[in-house]
Amino acid sequence: MNRIVRTTLVTAVAVAALGGLAGSGRTAPELRVSEPAPVQAAPPPPPVSVRHEARPVGKPTHLSIPAIKVDERLHGVGLKANGAMQTPDFGDAGWYDLGPRPGAPGPAVLVAHVHGPAGDDVFARLHELEPGDRVTVERTDGRSTFVVEAVEQAAKDKLPYDRIWNETDRPVLRLITCGGTPDPVTRMYPDNTIVFARLAP
Q1: pTM for this predicted structure
Q2: What pLDDT, on the 0 to 100 scale, is given for residue 53?
Q3: Which long-range contacts (CB under 8 A, 24 or more apart) does 121-124 make?
Q4: Which of 159, 182, 41 is nearest to 113 (CA)?
Q5: What's the confidence (pLDDT) of residue 86?
Q6: Mean pLDDT value of segment 5-31
Q7: Topology of domain 3-199, per CATH?
Q8: What is the pLDDT, as a whole number, of residue 176?
Q9: Domain layout of the chain by residue ranges
């Protein structure tokens, strides 16, 4: 089976999640606001791999989650020069375009902010999802609908990497945003909300 090690992918997720992935109420770094002291990451998770053939489906274009009234375009996000994962603009949702695409084998990852300058953002209600709720991703070649299996909240230094980035031949989906109560001074969130979903039959 043709595989490549994607240590950089895991590192990016670790840095982004532990540093405030998809959900602090702060503005983007390029606006030159002062940043809080960096959060110290836990020891890095073991490298995982992605098959070369795991990207045969079209590019994701749209996300729909009726249970929490999400209806947004999807934009690809990659890595910044410092190795951190890019985050979508406030009001947008992003898919990690260096990993599996939704509907292809393996764990596809979608991210969005929980809160932004205008208030609640795309994933503000992500924590309200329940098992059985449906998530539909439209692509350039069709669509895939996923069924929520679990919703979890985890501290950013204790993320379940082995289950987010698990080795699987099944198409699965992970939706990630910030969770918990933000610090009143830094407005940084201590946790991540993670939704685990499988492809609907």
Answers
A1: 0.77
A2: 53
A3: 121/23, 121/90, 121/91, 122/70, 122/72, 122/91, 122/92, 122/93, 123/22, 123/23, 123/70, 123/93, 123/175, 123/177, 123/193
A4: 182
A5: 85
A6: 40
A7: Sortase; Chain: A; (2.40.260)
A8: 95
A9: 3-199
